[in-house]
Amino acid sequence: MAEIIDGKATSLQIQEELAKEVEKIKQKGGKVPHLAAVLVGDDGASVTYVNAKVKACERIGFGSTLVHLPRETTEEELLRKVAELNNNPEIDGFIVQVPLPSHIDEQKIVDAIDPKKDVDGFHPINMGKMILGLPGMVPATPKGILLLLEKNGIETEGKNCVVMGRSHTVGTPISVLLSRKSKPGNCTVTQIHSRTKDIARHTRQADLLIVAIGQPEFVTGDMVKEGAVVIDVGIHRVPAPERKSGFKLKGDVNFEEVSEIASKITPVPGGVGPMTIAALLYNTLLATKS
């Protein structure tokens, strides 16, 4: 049975470290980091996620602001709100929670965010800096995965890493980051996706398998190398009539099967999700110093 990589505990450890940094800033009379989150509409998963970010800010002593706009908010109104946050010296970093309503162009909103305040790390300038290995905001979920590997002592140097997925939010950035000359890093990375032929042939070569393909329980036990480390980035609400909530959360990996093969594995929930929040807080502290 695989060892569980506890993202919740690791995230809390990082938050404790950040809280100590905040205390030092306060003692020196410096500016306390302030994170804002913009939520458009009432998507259940987004509301839960944003509330978790606000609570994490309170826990470690950051300032936090929640801007909750109605679903009918126009693209122009949202762009004005982004400009307002860009120009507010009290706000060090902010995110615009996605997905946005279909009438709003997400990329246009991302492009409008000041790169220095883009703690999600999606602005083209920050993505470009990441590719070049320059200092900047690293996308939050990939940054969270790096922190998870580092804090749990998972060796990556010289390992065969297979990344399933090619999104700009997870798959492509983590492929770049793990191939860099850094720690964690120095992997030999293969990036595969839904159009890859014979996916299992690739996944069975992975010492480190990172799954962000967006399909519930896609990776089964026969697709994983004995002793591999498996990082499951996916999260899906699967109907479960027997539960009060009416659903249960599943990842992109069949946990029951793969945990019998892997040496270490992240659960869903409680794996990568909490680490994304830790990385956002980490980026906000970085934004305060920039």
Brief digest:
The chain has 290 residues and is α/β, with parallel strands linked by helices. It is built from 10 helices and 11 strands.
Describe the structure.
This protein is α/β, with parallel strands linked by helices. It has two domains: 31-114, Rossmann fold (3-Layer(aba) Sandwich), CATH 3.40.50; 140-273, 3-Layer(aba) Sandwich (Rossmann fold), CATH 3.40.50. It contains ten helices and eleven strands. The strands form three sheets. A six-stranded parallel beta sheet has the order 1-11-8-7-5-6. It has a three-stranded parallel beta sheet with strand order 3-2-4. Strands 9-10 form a two-stranded antiparallel sheet. Helix 2 links the parallel strand 2 (34-40) and strand 3 (63-69). The termini are far apart.
Topology, element by element:
Blueprint: E1 3-4, H1 7-27, E2 34-40, H2 44-60, E3 63-69, H3 75-86, E4 93-96, H4 106-112, H5 124-132, H6 140-151, E5 160-164, H7 171-179, E6 188-192, H8 199-203, E7 208-211, E8 229-232, E9 236-239, E10 247-250, H9 255-258, E11 264-265, H10 272-289
Parallel strand pairs: 1-11, 2-3, 2-4, 5-6, 5-7, 7-8, 8-11
Antiparallel strand pairs: 9-10
Would you identify the CATH H-level superfamily of the largest domain? NAD(P)-binding Rossmann-like Domain
Q: How many domain units? A: 2
Q: How are the strands ordered across the major sheet?
A: 1-11-8-7-5-6
CATH architecture of the largest domain: 3-Layer(aba) Sandwich
**Structural class by sheet pairing and helices:** alpha/beta
Unreliable residue runs: none
Rg, rounded, reads 19 Å
Helix fraction, binned, reads 25-40%
| Principal-axis shape | globular
